[in-house]
Amino acid sequence: MVDHPAWDxxxxxxxxxxxxxxxxxxxxxxxxxxxxxxxxxxxGTLRAVSPQLGLxxxxxxxxxQMLAQQAKLQAVRASVLAHAARRDTHREREEIVRxxxxxxxxxxxxxxxxxxxxxxxxxxxxxAMPTExxxxxxxxxxxxxxxGVTIRHIYQESTLQDADSLAYAQWMAxxxxxxxxxxxxxxRMTIVDRRFALIPIEPRSGRGALEIRGNRLVSALCLxxxxxxxxxxxxxxxxxxSHGLSDQATAILRLLRRGRTDEAIGRQLGLSERTVRRTxxxxxxxxxADSRFQAGVEAALRGWV
Length: 305
Fold this sequence. Notes:
Number of domains: 3
CATH topology of the largest domain: Endonuclease, Chain A
Radius of gyration: 31 Å
Largest sheet: 8 strands, mixed
Shape: elongated
CATH architecture of the largest domain: 2-Layer Sandwich
Number of helices: 11
């Protein structure tokens, strides 16, 4: 129709060699998209709109639909967050919330992974970590670490005698988890942002967990965790190089020496910028360096990289 404005339906059928019903269907579709309109110079006929103008109009329409959809999503997000805030306000009035069953515990941990602001602190006990717990831990840790949340983990030695549990601990350490090991841990627990603490209802029962709230109770558990952390051994020593550096720290140091920013290093290694910044700060302290450049030079002089 653009190339031959004077053609009617019969001529379109003849030249395109397709059924008249298909022509009418195509014309209806083009009219719906405002790509053809009634002709003012030739009443009773249709004219093709310039494809450039027509497609621009369609893009504008699609953009408006997308903006409307984004507005709906923002409204839903605001509603969900408001509902969660109301739930948390209600829960804050209680000191202990009972989470029945493992599904309820995992759902709550998933919620914490998506909303935590500062930290996760976990104490793992037992002979081995269940396969489901390992897979869940990987998923939730990715979410938390990607948001810049610090993860500290104390493992009981007997747990790491299991090959799958040891592989999990190594996998986590490579992605930025700060982990330590101790001979005997008193209780399994997870502390989130120093505001919430989850402990099992009964050890090794799978019945669920108690979520503890309230400054006094959670503060006491935080104090216990810090005491155990100070008495435990850094897990990284089990797979550190001769300079006491983990593979992750060595990789960060190499990129630091090349002048990469924390953001660039994190993007290349798949780490959060916060994890990189924390590691760089630790390396600078170990190297007694006042600047990133000095740290790179000192590391080279010591043969670390």
